[in-house]
Amino acid sequence: MFVGQNSRGTFWSEGEWVPFADDGWGERKDGYDTIEWAAAQPWSNGNVGTMDGSWSGHTQNLLAPTRPPHLKAMFERMAPARWDCNEGFDNVGLRVLILAQLLIQAQHPSASPEQRSHIEELESLISNPVEVMSDLPSKNLPFTDDHHPGVAKGFNKSLGGPLNSHIDATLKVSEIDIPIFHLGGWFDVFLPHTLDMFTGMSERGHSEQTRQSQRLLIGP
User: Fold this and answer.
1) Topology given in CATH for the domain delimited by 30-82+165-219
2) What is the pLDDT of residues 42-54, one digit of tens each?
3) What pTM was estimated for this model as a whole?
């Protein structure tokens, strides 16, 4: 059985979207709750694994240190472990990514009339990255600051500010206690994160079994 989860405040999920704030070890542990909900369903045998990459890879990294009792394994594909614009993924790229995410949500059947009303503006911004880049100071988020304060709050430290320690999974590797298959790519912008998580888990995972159960594959 496959279960797909939308982060809080995105698509069909209710609430305010503050990227990654509710996916890990914060006040609201949405990832933990989802694993335990799935394990308790009548169609479940109680053994839950997770898989995906990129954005959903990061939500897995945030979930892992919370140690849901029924989480048995993870497969992470090219997954960020943190959001730091000083390494690889610059603030301009992050700005465009945020706008692209908001456009996808605005075009989705779950979108509200207000969200749909922003489609044309979002499309214009995404097609003109120079306009996005020219908005200073660099921590500004064009469109997002005005219409999605939760998103702006979630990223304002990453854009020219200090590292967001509350979404940095490398700081929590000693609390992770499950086998993980780490898949990276030689040309992937998040390869340093994949290596950091694999190395950190192999050296400082919560148990000896976990430290010995990490696997790494780097492909094209």
Assistant:
1) Rossmann fold (3.40.50)
2) 999 999 999 999 8
3) 0.85
pLDDT 10s digits, 62-99: 999 999 999 999 999 999 998 765 554 555 677 788 88
Residues forming beta bridges with residue 217, ordered by sequence position: 183
CA 29 → CA 20, 108, 117, distances in Å?
10, 25, 32
**Integer distance in angstroms from the first to the last C-alpha of the chain?**
30
Per domain, the residue ranges of the chain are 30-82+165-219, 91-155
Non-local CB neighbours of 217 within 8 Å, separated by 6+ positions: 181, 182, 183, 184
